[in-house]
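Q: I'm writing up a methods section and want to include an example of the input and output format. Could you take the sequence below and give the corresponding predicted structure tokens, formatted cleanly so I can copy it straight into the document?
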Amino acid sequence: MSLAIDGIRKRFGGREVLRGATLAVARGERVALLGPNGTGKSTLLAIVAGLIEPEGGAVALDGVSLLGREVRARARLGYVPESADAPAHLTVGELLALVAALKRAAPPPADLLDRLAVPPLLEQPVGSLSLGQRRRACLAAALVGDPALLVLDEPTNGLDPGGVDALAALLRERGLSGGLALVATHDLAFAAAIGARCIRLAGGCVADAP
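A: Here is the clean output for your methods example:
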């Protein structure tokens, strides 16, 4: 199992955000994407998740492209954006059921929901939740179907220390079973806690972090 990001280019208006970004994530690996705001971390993650089309380059999971409008391989991917946005009118339970239906997968098991402290939120509308609660709900939704790849944008924002610890433990365990994670973060302690290989985005390209 592997993720290959090759030569991704993306421009917004006259600004070239990504200029041939290239990265490989191996089986069981957690990769932390570092860099200041505005360097393209969120853009790269959104491209991997299929939400933004690049001007050039390729993204493949186990050799199967993740780019294009109709890509079944995305069912093997779970994504949480920085804002942890989800339809505000849905309850958390309805959100999980919707994602499970779209992925044709079983809902997350009860023990996973317990680890993420989601059960007390199941009957609450997403729009009524705090950022940390929304993040827990969106993490649970991202884990529907036990995806091979997790793509997480600033996943510790809004989480209390217990939530951060639970997420770190979950990512380490998934790595031991071969799961991949690509994480954009400013939280170096979290990157260390999940045993991530740290890389840096600079000038629209990827380099090993110093």
